[in-house]
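Reviewer 2 asked us to include a model.

Predict the structure of this chain.
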Amino acid sequence: MTENEIYISVNDLAELKGVTSRAIRLSISRGRYVARETEVHGGTSYEVLLSSTEKHVQQRYFEQETNSAIENHLPATKEKDFIPQSAKETALARMDLLKEWRKFRNSHHKKTSADRAFLESYNSGILYEKIFLKIGSVSIGTLKRWNKILGCSSDYTILIPNYSYSKQHEFRTTLTEQEKNIFMKLILHPNKFSVGKAISITKHVLKKQGQEYIPSTVTFRRFAKWFRDNNYDKWVLARGGESELKNKVAPYIVRDVSVLNVSDVLVADGHRLSFQILNPFTGKPARAVLLGFLDWKSGYLCGYDIMLEEDTQAIASALRNSIINLKTIPKIVYQDNGRAFKAKYFCNTDFRESGFSGLYGRLGIKVVFAKPYNARAKVIERFFLEFQESFEKLVPSYTGSSIQNQPARLKRNEKIHRELHEKIHNNYVPTIQEVKQLVDSWLEFKHSQPCPNDRTRSIKEVFDSREKQNININELDELMMAHEVKTIHRNGIRFLNTDYYNDALYGLRDRVIIRYSLFDLSYVKVYTAKGEYLCTAKRVEATHPMAHHMGSVTDMQSFKQKIKKQKQLRNRTLRTIKKYIQKEDVKFIESQMIEENNPVNKAENQIAKQEPIVFEEKLRSVFMNGYEKYEYLMREGCTIPEERKWLAEYMKSDEYKQIYEEI
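Predicted model (structure tokens):
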């Protein structure tokens, strides 16, 4: 069949023209097309001679026939594996623009002027703004080419830009495998070469190998950017190690704090202060350690202690303060993995090794240790960061936590800042007691802020909602204090250039253990070398050198009490030794111990006068004191069971220990 003898159905012609079949039949009835009748199912229809139709219809027909022949006789082409969304959006915008262009052309008789008017309006960006933003300006040739490609089809994918698209993990580059290998060894080096330096070294190596064509810097940089964005885990691990991989790439765990109650979990850690305090032992400035226990639920700092180093005694004192403030025993303590925290003194539960379950175990507290170098697991780290920013930097003795963030006055040749600091603050360095007062004031402000786990209430309000119980503070004393070994001297125990004394230390010269807290240095607790409690020694206050003549009433009373105490202790010694020496020798010793030059008047001497020691000339059946009966029984012996029972009980009494216990 020749071209002039080709007939097509009414439906095919309607599809080629983009109109309805009824419109084609009307055109046939009006004699616009050459047609013939044909038998179809259900009656007759028409076929239109192709040569009698419009030229563009004939051209479109032959294009479709050609494409169909290629698809039927040639091997099927491989479809694109991946088409990005942006390319699909571009194709949809092209199709919308073609539809609007066709409508505009059909409404005008002069197609050329219509095309010119349409393009001027569109390319100005006023008409169809969204389409213009997507595909930009176009020419009439571009529109006709798209219209020819689309034809009568409604499939927008025909208009997808014919680019070579790559998948997520594919990158098309002109770099050869050799060039990639050299470049990758440098950008993934653990010494962290910069991308620019890695490019320059790679180019130098390629030149040394005799390669004539060297890729441009932009080519290398694009490849490095693509590799980093699509292989960030490998990039970080190779250049920074596992710690950076964990902190920058690996997903983190979101913890549901709402399931916790106040006092369920305390988070403990130590923080090196960024300002100096006075060392109570040396009197020199030093950076101390603040050890704190933070309630996880409320964010309330339950207790803390300040020590020169992070040790078990400081942790114990901070824990004791936390329990007192909580008024309950926490269930879990989540703490650091440091050596001081892992001491057996706290956490050992093996009776075969230590003989006791550890202080945490005795209190019923379960200990959970954080993984080493895993600061993000402890919420108290965030608290310490805020503490440093809003408190430590306000202290005059602030030095910074490192060389990088130290104040200007500590840097070299900063005379102006140094002189200004001396003029304003006079090189003031606070004591531990002063720092505690400042920290307590700051905590009042901090605890009034909204709770991070309950924004409707403040930190203190959430903390006050806890359940409380009675806590025996005496049972927590072992946790409270640091300890040192001291020797008892004539005036008691010398500690921090101060004397601490108690009557129980009179006559002792042995080495003892003292326990103390730097928060309250008014007293120390004294224990024997075996750990037996002796007494609580209080700090000895100095006496006015001229109390009688120039002192106040308080100075006079203090002086009288000290004189009276000296004589009472002397009498106790005389009563103890009288059974070992003759009565006449005792009277001689007593006369030698009487002070010849007493600085007080006669009235004062009468107040502080020693009660005379009475020696029995013969035995009496009624005794005024317990020690008299004891001496009688020791001298004459026990004759009845009641006397032996009384003697056994008396030897356990405090009076016996103070008078007769051997030194």
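The CA atoms of residues 299 and 383 lie 8 Å apart. The longest strand covers residues 265-272. We have added this to the supplementary material.
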